[in-house]
């Protein structure tokens, strides 16, 4: 694919210095920031608590995004990866906080159409994510209404997991059906696995631990971009 964009995931960064870590990524040539939001809080609806969380981990929410936006200025593109139940709940708060793209999980909502509309009305781009167990046919009906499809290459929840190569047929199928759609991969992507993603047709590359663990993030970001854009 030509013109791949690299979005570091700051999940495995030094979260006590999140602003500095984001700046370090941008200074190292990151095209955008992939910000992983995970739930862990039940939402009240119709007098009943839903205690079903989307992932077994908690990260941060819109107040942190608001602080990052203040610190980093208007330029950096924030791709919010919303690993939460009831993603409807956070559209407006995230828009107000300064998010540019709202990437929600198809598995987490009963009404993707309404959610897509709401995200647009709040001025954000729309990303639609699927977990490894979700087949790509479920995403296809929405593909013409979204800006980006995210094909997860690990089970969402944690950084540093092993890349699932058997997700590549999903990417390839989407690329064939929707030639101009942005396709993002997320999970276990680094110098050893990016080529497979690129060959399948991904053009937005999320990479967490491979970049964070390096002493030289700039060279890893450059490498990922060069391999992907070949
Ligand atoms: C996993 C997150 C990913 C994660 C990627 O649930 O969505 O964004 O941080 O980290 P690596 O690249 O280490 O798998
Ligand atoms: Zn992510």
Automatic annotation (TrEMBL):
Requisite cofactors: Co(2+); Zn(2+); Fe(2+); Mn(2+)
Signal peptide boundaries: none
Primary enzyme class: isomerase
One of the record's GO molecular function terms: metal ion binding
Active site: 36, 186
Gene Ontology terms describing biological process: carbohydrate metabolic process; pentose-phosphate shunt
Co-factor binding details: Binds 1 divalent metal cation per subunit.
InterPro entries recorded: Aldolase_TIM, Ribul_P_3_epim, Ribul_P_3_epim-like, RibuloseP-bd_barrel
EC number: 5.1.3.1
Swiss-Prot/TrEMBL catalytic activity: D-ribulose 5-phosphate = D-xylulose 5-phosphate
Task performed by this protein: Catalyzes the reversible epimerization of D-ribulose 5-phosphate to D-xylulose 5-phosphate.
NCBIfam families registered for this protein in UniProt: PRK05581.1-4
Subunit architecture: Homodimer.
Family: Belongs to the ribulose-phosphate 3-epimerase family.
Protein name in UniProt: Ribulose-phosphate 3-epimerase
């Amino acid at each position: 694919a030509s013109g791949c964009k690299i979005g570091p995931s700051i999940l495995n960064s030094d979260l006590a210095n999140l602003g500095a870590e984001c700046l370090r990524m941008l200074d190292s040539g990151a095209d955008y920031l992939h910000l992983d939001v995970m739930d862990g809080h039940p939402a009240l609806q119709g007098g009943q608590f839903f205690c079903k969380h989307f992932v077994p981990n908690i990260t941060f929410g819109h107040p942190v995004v608001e602080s990052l936006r203040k610190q980093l200025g208007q330029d950096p593109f924030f791709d919010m990866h919303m690993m939460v139940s009831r993603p409807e709940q956070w559209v407006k708060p995230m828009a107000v906080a300064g998010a540019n793209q709202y990437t929600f999980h198809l598995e987490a909502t009963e009404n993707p159409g309404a959610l897509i509309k709401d995200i647009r009305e709040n001025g954000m781009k729309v990303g639609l994510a699927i977990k490894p167990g979700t087949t790509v046919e479920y995403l296809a009906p929405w593909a013409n209404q979204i800006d980006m499809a995210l094909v997860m290459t690990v089970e969402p929840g944690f950084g540093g997991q092993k890349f699932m190569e058997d997700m590549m047929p999903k990417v390839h199928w989407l690329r064939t059906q929707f030639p101009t759609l942005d396709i993002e991969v997320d999970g276990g992507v680094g110098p050893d696995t990016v080529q497979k993603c690129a060959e399948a047709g991904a053009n937005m590359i999320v990479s967490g631990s491979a970049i964070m663990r390096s002493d030289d993030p700039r060279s890893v970001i450059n490498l990922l971009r060069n391999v992907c854009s070949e």
